[in-house]
Predict the 3D structure of the following.
Amino acid sequence: MKNIKKRLIVILAFGLVLSISTPVLATEFGEQNESTTESAPPTETSTKNNSIEEQKSKKELLKASANAVVRKTNLSFKIGDTPTAQDFVTVNDDSNNPTFTFKNGQPVTNAPGNYSIEINVTFDDNTSTDITVNYIVKEAAPLATLKTTTPVIELGSKPTPNQFATPAAGAKLSFKSGVPSTKKTGTFTTTIIATKDGKTSELIVTYKVLDQEPPTISVNPDDYPFVIKGETITPSTFVTATDNSGKVTLTFKPGYEPTYSRLGMHTFVVIATDPSGNTSEFSSYYVIVSDKPTLKAPTLDLKRSTPSILYGVTMPNLGVIAEDEDENLIGWSIEDEKGNFTITFETPLQPGDIFALYSSTEVEYSEKTYYIYDPETLKIRELYESPSEVKTINTKKSNTNETKKIIPKTGDANSISLTLIGLILGGSSVIILRKK
């Protein structure tokens, strides 16, 4: 019984305590709730700040390395170039997406020299840095350069621009005022235009027009090697010369001047020179022959001779020449050691034909003796010696009388042995051309 009472007393006491303390607890809890509600904003700010710090921490972890962007060295540009800011730096690490700007405006490139420029580099981590770069501005490579020596153009030729200047790779050259004239020798100027990629430059060049072509030498007719003893000999005796300048001088080469008196074969050398000093040389042979008959004339055996074959005798080892009345060769023979000769005609003599015989060496000859195949007797006979003899001859070609003047036996002092032709043809001629 006592125990039940004790329990009731405890329960009642506990209930009393609860009834007293409940309002207090409610008040504390209410104040506590109000306090929590009022401090909510600071809690949110703290959270945001923590988020920014975390972001900053992450950004710091992604910050560009010290050598992400570095300046270029030994940098150079040409006059007129327009470089960008990035042309001045080398990017080693682009993970922070660097961008580049000129800090103080476009760099100087309009004049040669040494310069510096500041490049502002900005990264996506909101950091930036300035880099100072040194650079050189050089003269632009020329589109063409003049020749190192004064161009020499041939007289009368058509020059090209490349004879005056050397173009850069890809450049083209042209004359500003058309192809310059080269009709006269002298010193002149012309303007060359060089073009490449829309750019042009002009070069004024001085050049010379010279005659570098040697004269042309032409040999006179085939009889030039034969010169009569005592005749005046000049270079024009043997050759003529022409030149693009229109003027040329002929002279004998020193030591090869001609002789005038000594019979026989001789060598000569002619030099042709134009006003510019270009020369040509021609060398050959000539023969001085006697100016008068010196050998004994051949004797024709009239009894044995026929219209087809002539027989006779003269000095040993000479040549005997047979010519028609127009001095055309119709036959010849070399005598034996006793002086006997035989001449065979390809075309037999016709009644009324006149021919001459004379002996000859390379440089000497005899008087001519004239014969006729008499149309009346049909025999060969010697003509009369009188220089004024005029004889009426009936030829087989005509039934009418024809008057002919008979050439005197004394002959022609300017007649030259035709056997010399073979001798000269056996020689050689050489033409040598020289430029000044």
